[in-house]
Structure formats: C-alpha cells, structure tokens
Amino acid sequence: MFHRPRVIPSLLLRKNGLVKTLKFKDQRYIGDPINAVKIFNEKGVDELVLLDITATTDKRGPNLPLLARIAAEAFMPMAYGGGITQFEEIREILRLGYEKVIMNTSAIENAELIREASECFGSQSIVISLDTKKNFFGNYHVMTHSGSNDTKLDPVQFAQEAEKLGAGEILLYSVDKDGTMSGYDLSLIKKVSEAVNLPVVACGGAGRVDDFAAALHAGAAAVSAGSLFVFYGKHKAVLITFPTDEELTKAGVFES
Amino acid sequence: MKQYQICTRCIMDTSDPEITFDENGVCNHCHNFDVNIKPTWRPDETGKEMLEKIVEKIKRESQKNEYEAIIGLSGGVDSSYLAYVAVKQLGLRVLPVHIDGGWNSEIAVRNIENVCKSLGLDLHTYVVDWDEMNDLQAAFVRSGLANLDVPQDHAFYAGVYKFAADNNIRYVLSGSNWATEGILPPAWGYMAKDRRHLEGVHERFGKMKLKTFPRISMLERKLYYPYIKGIKVVTVLDYMPYNKQDAMKVLETLGWRYYGGKHFESRFTKFFQAYYLPTKFGYDKRRAHLSSLVVSGQMTREQALAEMETEQYQPDELREDREYVLRKLDMSEEEFEAILKAPNRTFRDYPSSHEYLEVFRKIRSFFRKFM
To answer: Under 8 Å CB-to-CB from B342, ≥6 apart: which residues?
Structure first.
C-alpha cells in the first residue's frame, strides 16, 4: 500500500512580510512571501498554508493585491486564512487561484458563513483552523484573534460542530507548541481526530521529520510545520528547506 | 564612434568605452593584471606559507571564541568553496553568515543547506527587510544607472561586517579572488561600497525611509572596523591555486549544484546581468568574467569566445524571470519599458564619495612612496 500523506509548510503573513511566531507571540521577521513561495514551489511541496496573523486583530480583511501576487508564484494547492468575514471575500480568494480558505474567528462568530460557503463552493475548499491552548487545569480551549482571545469552547465539540456546518478539513493548531520545535501535542491530535471524520492537519511543534510520523500515528491525516521549514540549525538561521522524499520515507512518513 | 577592437590576449573589447590597446593589441586590463594584480596574487608556495601564518594568528587570537572567523555565504561557487577550504584545509571554526536580500533562488538556499550540512557548520542569517530592499532596488532601477546590484552587494558587505563587529569576531574570510575576478572595467558600473551613493540614489527615487537596511560608511570601512574594532578581512582564495572548474567538482561532492552563471544564485542578478545590462547598456559582464579566467590561465581565449556565443536566456525563461522580477518589485511592464528606453546615467549624475576616495588613494600612494 503506497501512502503519501501531505506535508504542508505554513507561512505567517504580517503586513507584507513573513514572520515566525513562538506560542503565537514573539514575531520574528523572516522575509518576503513572494520569494519564499517561489522557493517552496521549486522544492515541489504538496501544498502551502498562508495565514495573515494580523488581519483580524487589525480589524481588516485579506490583503487581496498581495494575495494575487503570491498566488502567481505557486503551482501547488494553496490555502489562505486571516481576516475573512464575508462570503464575497471567499469567492474572491478562490477566484485568485487559492484552493482553500481557512477560517478561525469567523467560524465562531458567524457559523452561517461556513454553511453558506461550503454549500456554494464545496466542503473541500473550506478549512476551519482550531487554535487550541491548554489552561491551568489542563483543559483545552479554542482561541481566536491569533490566540489572544479565549472562547472557553472545547476543541472536540467545536470540531464536531464544524463538521456539521460543512467544513472539509481541520487545521489543528497547538498554541503552546507553536514554534517550540519540541514535537506535536499528540494527545490533542488523538482526541480531535477520533471525534470527527474530517481530515485533521496537525500544526504546531514540529522540530524534526520524525515528529511527522508520530502525528500521523496519533491520527492526523496530514502534517504542517513552520519553524522546521524556515529555520536552520541552532542559531535558527532563516533558510528555506524541505525534506526529500527519501528522508520522509526513512522517517516512516511515506510508506511505499 | 570608435572602431570595434578586441584584445588579442583576453576577450575584452570596445564595449568598455575606456579600453585602450598597446601596439600588439593587448588591452589595459591585461596590463593592469600583470602589473598590479599578479604581484599580490600568490597561488604558490609563498602564498601557502603566508596563509599558514595568518591561520596560526587567527587561532591564537580566537582561542576563547566559539567561532574563529565568519564567512559570508551566498550559495555561489566562491563563498561555498571558501567554506570548504576553511573547514577541510585550514581547520578553522567558522560561522557562515548569510545575508538574505530577498532574491535567493531555490538552488542558492539548497546549496547553503548542503554546504553547511556536509561540513557540519552552523549558520546565521540576516534577513534584510524586504519593503526597504524593494524600495531601494526599485530606486536603482529608476535611476538609469548601470550597477543595479548596489543594494544587494552593499547589504551583503555591510551585513557581514556588522555581524562580525556585534559578535566580537575579528576575522572575516572573503571569497573575493583574483583568480576569477581579475578584470572588471570601472566604466561598467560604480562600486557598491559607497554609502553616500546608495543613499543619494534612494533619496531621489525611493518612497520610504530606510530604517534597518544595513549600511556601511567610508569612515567605518576604512577606519572604524579595521582599526577601532580590529576586524580583518582575509581573501583566502588569493593564497592558493583556485580553479573554478576544480572547485565546482569538489563542491558537487557536498551536494552543491551550479546555477549557470557568475552570481546567478541571485534571481535579480541573473536578470540584471543577462538581460538588463546587454539590452540597455550594450555590454555583457560575461566578457569580463571570462577574460578574468583567461588571464589567470583557467581558460583559453578560444574557449572564452565560444562561451560568449551561448545564449544566457531561453526566451520563455527570460519572460518568466522578467515577470517575476517586476511582480516582486511591484513595478508595471510600462514603467520598466520606459526605464529601458530612458537615457543612461552614470554615478556622476548622483551623489557619491568618489572625490574623497580619489584623495584618499592619492594620499595613500604618496605615503607609500616614502615608506
């Protein structure tokens, strides 16, 4: 049985530049999105996730002109999230050539938008990003507004709700693990992926290729990483890299 | 209009407006190489001994440091080979420093990754703010000047120096070398190291303030860094035989790949050297690069002439690169077309430190006569 789960770089936009965060804070500038996307494109990655992490907090919509320029560099499927509040924005982003839109704050504040969009454009193009954070008592809560707002909602229940509304995929972020490169939160992945039939994409914490295999083993359908693909070595030097098929096979991520 | 003439020894020709020939048809660049460069270039036993002494000194002075020296690493052949030499032949603890000016090609980042991995090196990257870089790069495109690589080159140079100073690393190993870079006509573009020039052009055509862009002034370069900070730049490759073809063979064992032309590891530089310069200014930098290889004995004149006949760009590749550069700079086709047709400018049309540097050179040569 040949099995090749998706391995997805996720890039964070702040205004016109890319940043990498640590636990959704400490934004470090890593350069120009257009060049980064072109390099990933030439490395032949399966898919890219692009998240504008200041759109919602700045109370603005997606930066469409920039998204158009970025889309021109990518031949692989792209998913965009950040600041989407309206049906028209979804239509426009899909029209620019993005295969999927990702919603987080809107999914909570405007469930109707999810339903409408998935009915109109199909479930495969609607992704819900679940940003989760463990509180003092060890319970997971869903966060919005780039991890700054605690909704007190339970991720499992929310994932089931998103599935009912017609979302086609869940981007499961661990705020606590983000940027730490210390491995995924496997129990969170297990919990959520067991509760829904939707594919769950694990995000937050990947530090080595081996971490992917663990996340897939815990139930994730695909894996995503930020730091691992933009930092090199102990000084976290900005350098775009992507593991070869060989490395992924060796680590048990790909099975042939 | 001068009559066309090409050097009988190298392949420099009258596309350099300032070129002169002797009675045998040998050009001033060849003479300059023989008289001024060859004596300082030591690809022999003397060089080996000198380098050994330098390396000893570096090791002695940097015992306490995690890194004995830094290397500016672009992913190109010179800096990659320098990293190999520093580790494998000189046994130095080096830290490669990469200045990311926003134009890295995939092959450049892959080369950096493979070189660092196979030599067991750490890496430090300084990412130049792209909004500022973009503004500055576009300003130079609008200026009508020949050297559009001033922003990139200046940032590389200043960034590496600043990193050394900030981290108290006293030695910078440079991949600059006479073996492959002995010839470059001054008329083909003003130098990138002049901060006044960089800022003067930006002042005229830029739209935003430069806040973080790495810059280095003449005083810093000539005085502060070398004497106050005690930072020394060592052009390691000038103390050994350095043959480009051989170097590339060695590098390929590290997973390094060639990218098709000098400095083409940068997407902008490829477009600028292979399209903009020949189109707008009518000269081809390959002529100087290949001539350098001819005078240093790495290539015959015939091979160089044959190389000049090859196309640097396939039509679809050129279209793709042109679209990419303009999209990245957020510049319209119409504006760029107008720039190509606008009058060509020289550095004299803009502020520069040229006069100061001339005076500085005169003073230095005056003192050398008496020393």
So the answer is: B144
Tell me which chain B residue has its CA closest to the CA of residue A37. Answer: B106
- A29:B129 CB<8 A: yes
- The dihedral over CA atoms of A210, A212, A216, A221, expressed in degrees to the nearest 10, equals -160
**Within a 10 A sphere around the Cβ of B88, how many other Cβ atoms?**
12
The partner residue sitting opposite A42, judged by closest CB among B106, B327, B328, is B106
| B130: chain A residues, CB-CB within 8 Å | 16-17, 31-32, 35
Tell me the per-residue pLDDT of A214-254, one tens digit each, with 9 for 90 and over.
999 999 999 999 999 999 999 999 999 999 999 999 999 99
The answer to whether the CB of B292 falls within 8 A of the CB of B181 is yes
Nearest chain A residue to B97 by CA distance is A237
Distance in angstroms (rounded) separating the CA atoms of residues A69 and B134: 14
Q: What is the pLDDT of residue B370?
A: 67
Give the angle B38-B42-B47 at the CA atoms, nearest 5°: 160
Other Cβ atoms less than 10 A from the Cβ of A65: the count is 10
Strands (E), chain A: 7-14, 17-22, 25-31, 48-52, 78-81, 100-103, 126-134, 140-144, 149-150, 169-174, 200-203, 222-225, 231-232, 237-238
Q: What is the pLDDT of residues B224-274, one digit of tens each?
A: 999 999 999 999 999 999 999 999 999 999 999 998 888 888 999 999 999
pLDDT tens across B78-135, in order? Answer: 999 999 999 999 999 999 999 999 999 999 999 999 999 999 999 999 999 999 999 9
CA pair distance B311, B280, nearest whole angstrom: 17
Quick one: CA torsion of B120, B124, B130, B132, rounded to 10 degrees?
Answer: -150
The residue ranges of DSSP E strands in chain B, in sequence order, are: 69-72, 94-100, 124-127, 171-173, 232-234
A27 has pLDDT over 90:
yes
Convert B307-324 into a string of H (helix), E (strand) and C (coil).
Answer: HHCCCCCCHHHHHHHHHH
**pLDDT given at position B1:** 56
Question: Hunting for tokens 């660092």 — which residue is that?
Answer: B116
Helix B77-84, helix B106-119: angle, nearest 10: 10
Query: Which has more confidence, A31 or B370?
Result: A31
For residues B66-71, give the mean pLDDT.
96
Rounded to an integer, what distance in angstroms lies between the CA atom of residue B246 and that of residue B264? 19
Q: What are the angstrom distances between the C-alpha of B72 and each of A104, A175, B156, B213, B230?
A: 42, 36, 8, 17, 18
- How far is A157 from A135, CA to CA, in rounded Å? 17
Alpha carbon distance A228, A124 (integer Å): 27
Other C-beta atoms closer than 10 Å to the C-beta of A82 total 28
Which of B122, B127, B330 is facing A238, going by the closest CB pair? B127
Angle made by CA atoms A16, A10, A50, in degrees to the nearest 5: 45
| B330–A43 C-beta distance less than 8 A | no
Question: pTM (2 decimals)?
Answer: 0.95
**Under DSSP, is residue B216 helix (H, G, I), strand (E, B) or coil?**
coil
Spatial contact of A199 and A169, defined as CB atoms under 8 Å apart: yes
Q: How far apart (Å, rounded) are the C-alpha atoms in residues B124 and B169?
A: 13
Between the alpha carbon of residue B79 and those of residues A123, B71, B75, B121, B174, the distances in Å are 50, 7, 7, 14, 7
∠ Cα B249 B250 B255 (to 5°): 90
Catalytic residues of A: 131
